[in-house]
Amino acid sequence: SVSALSGATAGILGLTGLHGFVFYFLASVLLSVLLVLKAGRRWNKYFKSRRPLFTGGLVGGLFTYVLFWTFLYGMVHVY
After folding, report:
1. Count of domains observed in the chain
2. Pfam families per the record (predicted)?
């Protein structure tokens, strides 16, 4: 998932604290924008509204992000 991939990226890059959380939100927004651009003018054919694109799964994905972020940060920068 995108949360796991962005968490792994943040861990490998060595992001800590607020920088890591900002990276997650930027990655989520970027994915949402790319989905809307890919759907084009027919976005309502694929989605009921645009709001769930930007907010759906944000909190649920956060836990996966933190798991991969801390694991890979520890593996690359601590050990």
Report:
1. 1
2. EMC6
